[in-house]
Structure formats: structure tokens, C-alpha cells
Write a structure and sequence with these properties.
Layout: H1 3-15, E1 21-22, H2 23-28, H3 36-48, E2 53-55, E3 58-60, H4 66-93, E4 98-104, E5 119-124, H5 129-143, E6 153-159, H6 170-178, E7 180-183, H7 185-194, H8 220-229, H9 232-254, E8 267-270, E9 273-276, H10 281-300, H11 307-311
Parallel strand pairs: 5-6
Antiparallel strand pairs: 1-3, 2-3, 4-5, 4-7, 6-9, 8-9
Helix pairs in contact: 1-10, 5-9
């Protein structure tokens, strides 16, 4: 595969989010091995052909310098939010049965626009996900009283029995590798090991960041609650809360409810996970990417629509 074709794919993916990328970032997200020198040479070739644009150190498919200002402003805001997110993530880890906490979403890519949410990825003890999720969402309800509910977006839960991401595609691979661990270093390390398939998508990416807060003891809340529910009562309660949550979300979907951003509210509910339905945002991004790559193929004659690449977008 020509490196220039891989560069087109990478810039096109981030272009979906109106996000210009640096040469180093492009190399990290290429789907083929490449040295920094090879990437720089290929970028110069594309610039000379006027097939991409550069503003300062950033590359984009759009001849729009305002995107650079937008990115820098978002990067600055992300620095502020990440400090808050790390503190909140450490707090979430103190809840019963929480084994690992990471920052996901746009903030994990060091970007946050005005009014951005703080999205958290939560790993729980096996068979106690729904107890942990219910307790954490009680905290989120309290956050509404201070208007900080957008700092507590805990929208993706798995437990230790479901560490392997079953949806293997370029979107999920990006989310896995950019996930920022906050607490529960042992559990988060295991998660990355189990999902090392993502490195096949981005062979130049390198190592994940270590967790900010390590396993430095248990809170009194954990020490008190976990023994109470590590028994048959806990088994019953976890199953009960799973069914209650599933029925509630099914009613939301039936009424076609949307969240504050206008996106459909949908949650896949099972014993070992509670996660957004990929038929919504994830599928939309993958479809948009495929359409954009076909447009670039027709415009520039690049080989961007080969069968192997689009086989990757299938949900396995």
C-alpha cells in the first residue's frame, strides 16, 4: 500500500470531525508501517499536488485556516478539562466494584469544544456491573444540582468478563488506543493487552499512557459495600438492576427520545456490558468515512476503497 493512500485515509478520518492533524499524529494513525521521514516525504508530495493543505504544522483536506484556530482553542480547553476529569475519575474509582476508569470521547484525543462532556469508560468487577453503574448514576443525579452533569458522562460500562471489544473496526480501534487511563492501572493494563488487536490497525501508534492514579488502597465505601454484595444477594440485585435498566432504556428508544445534543438515546444492555448502540453514532461515522474515501478515490485516483480496508469496518 502506498503511504500517500494511507495518509489520505488518516486525514479523511479526522476531517470528519473538522480536526487538522500534525505529521506525528498522522504517522501514529496510519494503517501501514512508516518512518517519520517517509511520512514527511509523502506529505510534501501531496502538498505539491495540492491534494491536501497545510496551515502551520497541521494538515487537512479543507482549505480553511479557521480550523487551526478551532483546534488550538479546543486543545487549550481540553488541558483544563483533563485536570478535572482526572480528579473525577479518581473519585469514581472509589465506588464499589469499580476496577478501572478511563477518559474516552473527544477529550481522550486532547480536544474539547465549548460545552464539551467528560466521557468515562468504566470497568467493573465481574457480575457486579449493574450495581456499580446504579451507584455511579446516583452520583450523576446529584451532579444535576450543581449543573455539572456534563462532567459525569459514564456511558460505556464493561465488566472483567467482557474486556474484549467485540466490535472490531477502525472507529473502535481509535477509541481503544486513545483511551486515557485514570485509575485502576492493573485492570486497564489487562484491557489493553486483551485488545491488542487494535494495534494491527495502527502499527505506528506505540504504547498507551499509564494510569494517573494507581491502585493505592480502597475507600471506606468500597470496603463497606463490597462484602455486603459479594454473595447471592449481590447476584440477585445485579440481575434485577440490569432488567430494570433494560426496560427503562427500551421505553426511551420506543418513544424515540434524544439527548441534549439531539442524538437518539439507545443502550445495549447485557449481563457483562452496558454500552451505546453502535447503530447510531458509530455506524454514522463509519458510513461517512466510507463515502468520503470514495469521493477522494474519484477525485484523486488514490486506492482508498480496496476490499481489505472496508472489510475492517464490519462489526465482528
Amino acid at each position: 500500500m502506498a503511504i500517500t493512500d494511507s495518509i489520505f485515509k488518516t486525514i479523511a478520518y479526522f476531517d470528519l470531525f473538522h480536526y487538522p492533524v500534525s505529521a506525528d499524529e498522522i504517522r501514529k494513525f496510519l494503517d501501514t508501517p512508516a518512518t517519520p521521514f517517509q511520512v514527511t516525504a509523502a506529505l510534501d508530495e501531496l502538498l505539491n499536488k495540492k491534494q491536501i493543505f497545510r496551515f502551520d504544522e497541521f494538515y487537512t483536506l479543507s482549505n480553511d485556516a479557521s480550523l487551526i484556530h478551532r483546534r488550538r482553542k479546543g486543545n487549550e480547553h481540553a488541558e483544563e478539562l483533563l485536570q478535572i476529569a482526572n480528579r473525577i475519575g479518581a473519585k469514581l474509582y472509589k465506588f464499589p466494584f469499580v476496577k478501572g476508569v478511563g477518559i474516552s470521547g473527544s477529550l481522550s484525543k486532547n480536544y474539547a469544544d465549548e460545552g464539551a462532556d467528560i466521557d468515562f469508560f468504566i470497568i467493573t468487577q465481574a457480575n457486579r456491573l449493574w450495581i456499580a453503574r446504579t451507584l455511579l448514576h446516583c452520583l450523576k443525579k446529584i451532579s444535576y444540582l450543581t449543573g455539572k452533569q456534563h462532567w459525569y458522562c459514564m456511558n460505556y460500562f464493561i465488566d472483567e468478563e467482557a474486556l474484549l471489544m467485540t466490535e472490531k473496526n477502525i472507529f473502535i480501534a481509535t477509541e481503544v488506543l486513545t483511551l486515557k487511563p485514570v485509575s485502576g492501572s492493573d485492570c486497564m493494563d489487562t484491557f489493553f493487552e486483551v485488545n491488542n488487536w487494535a494495534n494491527a490497525y495502527f502499527p505506528n501508534y506505540g504504547e498507551q499512557d499509564p494510569a494517573i492514579h494507581h491502585n493505592t488502597g480502597r475507600s471506606w465505601f468500597k470496603q463497606l459495600a463490597e462484602p455486603i454484595f459479594n454473595n447471592r444477594l449481590g447476584d440477585w440485585l445485579d440481575n434485577y438492576l440490569m432488567h430494570v435498566t433494560g426496560r427503562r432504556w427500551a421505553r426511551k428508544e420506543k418513544r424515540h427520545k434524544v439527548n441534549m445534543k439531539g442524538n437518539p438515546m439507545a443502550l445495549r444492555v447485557a449481563k457483562h456490558f452496558g454500552r451505546p448502540d453502535p447503530e447510531h453514532f458509530q455506524k454514522r461515522i463509519l458510513d461517512m468515512l466510507e463515502n468520503k474515501l470514495r469521493e477522494l478515490t474519484n477525485k484523486h485516483g488514490a486506492q482508498l476503497t480496496d476490499e481489505d480496508y472496508f472489510l475492517r469496518k464490519e462489526i465482528i
